[in-house]
Amino acid sequence: MPLLRPPLQRVRALRRPPVRALMNLRELVSALNDFASPALAESWDNVGLLVEPSPPHTVNTLFLTNDLTEEVMEEAVQKKADLVLSYHPPIFAPLKRVTWKTWKERLVVRALENRIGIYSPHTAYDAIPHGVNNWLTKGLGTCTSVPLHPSTAPSSPAEGTHRVEFCADAEHLDAVLSKIKDIPETSCLTTLPVRVEGEEQTRVSLNCSQKALLEVVALLSQNSLLYHKTEILLLQKPLLPHTGMGRLCTLSEPLSLSDTVERIKGHLGLSHVRLALGAGRTLESPVKKVALCAGSGSSVLKGTEADLYLTGEMSHHDVLDAVANGISVILCEHSNTERGFLSELRDALTIHLQNKINIIVSEKDRDPLQVA
């Protein structure tokens, strides 16, 4: 009797999630630096790769947080993060030792024990056009904005604040060049043969610092022929469009102050903010110009003419100054003006990194201040 074969069954192919490629840590750091150049950060800041496990180190999961606390670090360990991107740098003041004594030292220990790198962009993300301050402007509705303190191109020119150009004949050229090369903070020394009033001469061009400029001019002034043929140019770095600290926003349509407060609360997901009314203002006063700065905005906002200052925190006396000048102030607490950007950052980095790695946002990161 022939064996009966079971009827053919269609087997549905199992869908497997796309396999993400690993990225080498240094390759990833380079890509992050391209997304927001560390050169755009404030000079006092501490940005870039702060903790690096021994190479080679590959990254499958990038973990985003606003503040890297011990609770957040435990979450990063549990979620098998390979690199933590902490908006605020957890290492700011120099560490003299790495022990188990202080919480910031313990962060470094935990990171290295679990082979987790730590990267911080901080004020570089404040400056970029697609950064934290740009995200904060979205809480105001339709508006146009410009940086309060525009950023300049970090590598143009490479060195020096001034350019000095002069012409010298063969009799004086070698002696002058020899002395100039001994002056510190001079660079980009170039020479070019030229004809001046029918004579063969050499045009010399050099870049120098403000301090070196005094010495260069003193040297050239020793020879009246050289000095009278000298030109001094101030080297100004070009401004980067839409890049810099803070934003001055002009609303397309004026809003009442009370409506502005509600928009900000909705954008930041807050049940309350702190409000100081400018002198002569009420909750129904119109708001057309808003100066804002994520985080701590006192130094960035100071002296700006606007109807409203929006930031995380300001000193008591800076609030008093603003109010006396008829400017209302909204304070939302420092990290509340930054943390909501992380979701937008996750989406932007997913595109920038071509979906090569897994990017997750911390669920434990939160503002340390609560209303009791």
List the helices and strands and how they pair.
Blueprint: E1 23-24, H1 25-35, E2 48-51, E3 58-59, E4 61-65, H2 70-78, E5 83-86, H3 103-113, E6 117-120, H4 123-127, H5 132-137, E7 143-146, E8 149-152, E9 162-168, H6 170-181, E10 186-196, E11 199-208, H7 210-220, H8 224-228, E12 231-234, E13 239-245, E14 247-256, H9 257-268, E15 274-276, E16 286-296, H10 298-301, E17 308-313, H11 316-324, E18 328-331, H12 341-352, E19 358-361
Parallel strand pairs: 4-5, 4-19, 5-6, 16-17, 17-18
Antiparallel strand pairs: 1-3, 2-6, 7-14, 8-13, 9-11, 9-12, 10-11, 14-16, 15-18
Short description:
With 372 residues, the protein is of the alpha/beta class. 29% of the residues lie in helices and 28% in strands. The strands form five sheets. It has a six-stranded mixed β-sheet with strand order 7-14-16-17-18-15. A five-stranded mixed β-sheet has the order 2-6-5-4-19.
